[in-house]
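User: Please run a holo structure prediction.
Assistant: Happy to. Please share the sequence and the ligand.
User: Here you go; the ligand is magnesium ion.
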Amino acid sequence: MDATDQKRLLREMLFARRFEERCAEAYQERQIGGFLHLYPGQEACAIGVLEKARPGHDYVVTGYRDHIHAIKSGVDPKAVMAELFGKETGCSKGRGGSMHIFDPDRHFMGGYALVGGPFPLAAGFGKAIQMRGGDEISICFLGDGANNQGTFHETMNMASLWDLPVLFVCENNLYGIGTAIERATVEINQYKRVAPYRIEAAQCDGQDIDVVMQHAETAVNYVREKRRPYFLELMTYRLRGHSMSDSGAYRSKDEVEQWARRDPIGIYKARLVAAGVLSEADFAAMDQAVQDEIEQEIIPFAEQSPEPAVEDLERYVYVEGGCTAWQN
Amino acid sequence: MAELSYWQAILRAHDEEMARDPLVFAMGEDIGVAGGTYKATTGLYAKYGEKRVMDTPISENSYTGIGVGAAMLGCRPIVEIMSVNFAWLAMDQLMNNAAKIHYMSGGRIRCPLVLRLPGGTAHQLGAQHSARMEKVFMGVPGLRVVTPSSPRDAYGLLKSAVRCDDPVVIIEHEAMYNLKGEVPDDEHFTPLEGSEVVRPGKDLTLFAYNISVHWALAAAERLAKEQGVEAEVVDLRALKPLDRTGIAASVRKTHRAIVVEEDEAAVGVGAEVIAILNEECFFELDAAPVRVHARDVPTPYNRRLEKASIPNADDVVAAARKLLGR
Ligand SMILES: Cc1ncc(C[n+]2csc(CCOP(=O)(O)OP(=O)(O)O)c2C)c(N)n1
Ligand SMILES: [Mg+2]
């Protein structure tokens, strides 16, 4: 990877961090409502994996912590922010919200609120790809907690049985809200849980984007070439609460501080600085540019966009003319 | 015009749609090699192969979800759940995903899934294999619910459902798969909205759907012979959305209404139809509308008890006589 790409990747992670931090502010100002789940600490996961896939071509699905997966899939950050603000210009026209970011044009097939719900959807995308005969793959990002749902086991079984081209990425951040993994799950190594389904699997550090990309490349190539499922577990940690309404009572300060030292942006930046790819001053300038973009382009777009019209409340419940269109 | 049984009509619809569109596929437990619990997919496995006629593991929620995912990418899956009772396990994928994705995505993603559900009280299958769930589905925005009472509609509704861009739940009846009826030889489509007057009349309306259409028709026959009463029978057919206009139009003519349903009354089709009558044509009513419905019990095994748990044509006749004061 050349220096330009390295700097771009660092900028993408930094952008993700600043974007999410700005969401938290907007939430405090009540410009964003509902549940808001932010991504700081886990940036190397979505960005590293999708760097090795083909965003916009491959299909991506995830849970409710979905802003960055969408943005790395090529969804316009302005449309994501507008969605959080509940605006008509949002990528789901203000009907979805933070947990339901959609952009089929970018093959970003959604964020979903129910833990474990996207597993079968991802397999269904794999099934559709298989039927159409393309070279796309389906990529499903979920947490460690999701693996205790029946859909995990049911879907692994069927994805393997039917040779579906699905990459399952488990972002193991060691907690499902306030419950530590070992208090909820017998086998804490998630990648071992797919062995009975004869799915290839690996576990790696999710904080070092170079490590993530190295494993993601293997995983993506495997799924694309073998047309078989693959399960990649990324060991990671969220530096903020589960959502905006998290007491944090379940984790020690010490633990959080230890993981903060393994901040994916810090790790990558230090590496690039050491290699002479960029200087501290370059990084500060990059950070400023990112914040300027958010403040001067993204936030004003979301703020100034119109809300959906109340007259359109019932629009989109059904496809307009969708039951008769084919008859004409 | 061929005489087909209900299952043969469903099979014909599958076959025609699968032959037409390579993205139509069927999935469900035992639908492939075994040909389907009620034979509705017999022979399709040999004709279309295992990728398009998929025997699934016993994982209702996730294979329904796989259908949803495939539909989101433009496939037209026809998912059969062996018995409507097992559809409870698929509720998350159906209610939270299939029904809501189009709306949540601001109309950007469609989910043209077809879910076929054999249900009802058949023959001594016991409480966990005898049930109706229409009341659950018909309360959900985003779903369409239809329920055929004849082979003609079993064919025509499945045809329309496969072509529809919304998720469609088709409620079939286990006691009707061998019912025979005329199905036109030409390809045809039964509308997914609207009801049908299957017997015109002027003295009262019997609203029915699925198997209860047959009880209503038998009752109307007897009322005509024994009482000289001309009962109109309306096959509701589409339960979501219900045909408000058709329901009101019939009662504007007859001024009396009975809703006949195999289901328990509470929160059900009858309750909804009567609410519509109140809203649309209350002052046209000459008598308070009534419901003929199942007793409020889990379906018992014993044949006598089982029969007593659901209504029949006699109950409809008795209700009609009472309503008419005869
Ligand atoms: C079916 C369901 N049950 C419970 C919840 C509430 N809930 C939301 S997120 C969450 C924890 C999920 O943990 P994990 O899968 O590890 O994801 P993480 O947020 O840690 O990335 C829970 C219990 C839900 N949204 N859906
Ligand atoms: Mg977790």
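Residues A 65, 113-115, 142-146, 171, 173, 175-177, 242 surround thiamine diphosphate (ligand 1) (CB under 6 Å).
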